[in-house]
Amino acid sequence: MSRLAACCCLAWLLLLRPGNVSGAITPGAVWFDNRGQQIQAHGGGILKVDDTFFWFGEDRSQGLDPNKRYVSCYASKDLEHWTFRDQVLKLSDPENFGPGWLIERPKVFYNAATKKYVLYAHVDDGTYKLARVGIAISDTVDGNYRYLKSFRPLGLESRDIGQFIDDDGTAYLIFESRPTKGFVIARLSPDYLNVEKQMSLVPAPLEGGAVVHYKGLYYVIGSHLTGWSPNPNVYATATSLEGPWTEFKNIAPPALKTYNSQSSTLLRIIGTKTTSVIFMADQWKPKELWDSRYLWMPLQIDGGQLLLPEPRPWTIDINTGEAKY
Ligand code: DGJ
Q: Quick one: signal sequence residues (predicted)?
């Protein structure tokens, strides 16, 4: 076979590759659930309940009722195999937000005192001018979430949201706020139904905010404001959620625009041997949102330095915490 023919064969094989490499998580591949359907959990977050991870995100499937907005939930014990649980939120415009209204970046918290699961999401009109969070609650993690209300946290504009739960169990919302040009890290009220105290205004016009606590340092990560287009995501650190935060640095070579992805969540896996931190990001396809892909990759992180390695298939042992690629 000529070299050209061999190259063509290889390109075809790569194009035909259906999804995740078996036994590994493959960044950018189509990721199928237990039904063989493409996972719809964009702009997502993870809540761990006992030994199960629940992945919530925007369901952008084709053929859904155009008047409704959907949040889907999937469950997994190993982060690789995901079982579809339900469209846990199927909502008609709850407050006359108007045509093109939206729900983005849902995140679920569990409140041990009230025993309620509380879903936060960015809710907005079609022009992104409303800039609020919406809240829905449920008695079960994958149950039907009931819409409660929307508001501007601390009276501030809020668009992309992220979630952070500290080691002491305290829950925080991260939200991008204009015109202050920064994103806010704010503590939730005891029942999680409000946002009550600003911890930090991280002084950078960033969105897709996420936080992780690792070896005594808080790492905050975010993307620049370029709509659906990727850009070089950045990080900063602090010893306290109240700052001060270091200068922001790129998490990957800037020309590669975070390997065509945008930050969503930092997931910490504490195992018996080590702790791994996983960067969860979206590779958006704005004209075919249903086919947007996920870039999940273990980070190289230590001593105030954070690096997103070049994406490639990887595995994790949930018990030991060891990630390999
Ligand atoms: C970037 C945000 O991170 C996404 O969640 C979405 O709101 C797009 N902007 C819309 O342009």
A: 1-23
